[in-house]
Amino acid sequence: MGEFSDVRRNRREIVAWVGSNIVPHEGALRARLRHMAVPEEEIGDIVQDAYVKIARLSDVEHIRNGRAYFFATARSVLLDRIRRERIVRIDSLTEADALALADDDPGPERKVSARQELE
Q: What is the Cα–Cα distance from 23 to 51, expressed in whole angstroms?
């Protein structure tokens, strides 16, 4: 019973972590996908698939930046969808467009470096 209890505790910790480190960035991710002209009905599926991939993780200790991880996961989902769609529609995204889904936030290391260069 101890092992089962540990798994349940770990699941609760992951859910709490997702709630505070991933969910707040959903709006920004949806806006980025809209900006990339992803059809609205596909945006919900991409976001949902990204949540599913994150929910399947056994732990989240390796993730330093929840926003960047969420955007990268959604990018992976989008690329998988593009690869599965062998029929290319005129209005579909190219893989190059999907690569643009990367988060624009420079991250703490680049921010500190930029500040040091200004001094």
A: 9
